[in-house]
Amino acid sequence: MDPKSRWEQERQESKKQRELSMMEAAERVFIRKGLEKATMQDIAAEDNVGVATVFRYFPRKEKLIVAVAAKRIEDQVAVFQSVADMPGTCLDKLGKLFDIFISFTEPKYVESMRMLEAFENYAALSTEPLEDIALYNQAHHQVSAIFSTIIEDGLHDGSIRSDIPVQETLSTLANTMGIFSKKLSLQKNIIMLESDLPPETQLLLLKRIFLDYLKAPVADRS
To answer: 12, 76, 94, 220: least surrounded by Cβ within 10 Å?
Structure first.
């Protein structure tokens, strides 16, 4: 690699790292102060940079909000893809995917769930389409594509029933499991809010219901 190309590569890598650092700082501020009350000055202080630097990378706070939320979904894509690539039947893989959703109730994922919940509420209350929302939607489409591939495989390996509409089933199960796990994760960490049934127990029951619904009859697998 010639010196000019090496310099350009290092410059791009440095820019990417700076952008990522700002996004991580922004997420901490968003979770601590809320999306509405957080300011670009708060984020600059959190990342130990000047506010002008933050604006140079993200001209509007809205762009930074969307970038942080999209990054959270993108982080999940790699995890889901690893399940899609593993050996086993479609039903085995769906069980692993549901286990990932169940794991979102663990303390280490609380901040991620809070951020996504706050973003969805923020987007729902916005009177105009959010700038760069396509980035967030694209990340969601990647997750949907992974689920779709797994279920399509199931129509060929005989592990799931063949009389269901793939896309409708995919959307319903993914949305239900994802939304429910996120809600239970948030409830679990609300001080003084008690539940008669642990979140993990509820999600394991939902997982069993879904897998029993999807499983092909014995005659179809013979």
So the answer is: 12
Cβ–Cβ < 8 Å for 138, 215:
no
Joined together, the tokens standing for residue 63 give 């762009």
Residues of the chain with CATH 1.10.10.60: 1-59
Three-class SS state of 160:
strand
Residue recorded with tokens 């762009």: 63
Question: Residues with Cβ < 8 Å from 195, sequence gap 6 or more?
Answer: 187, 188
The answer regarding whether domain 63-221 maps to CATH 3.40.605.10 reads no
Residue 205: predicted pLDDT? 93
Mean pLDDT, 10 residues at a time, over the chain (222 residues)? 72 87 95 93 96 95 94 90 93 92 85 87 87 90 87 83 80 84 75 67 92 81 52
Closest CA to 173 of 140, 207, 204: 207
Q: Residue 115 is encoded by which pair of tokens? A: 């951020």
CATH number of 1-59: 1.10.10.60
pLDDT at 30: 94
Whole-number Å distance between alpha carbons of 94 and 20: 31
Helices (H), 34-60: 40-47, 51-57
Q: Would you list the DSSP string of 80-94?
A: HHHHHTSSS-HHHHH
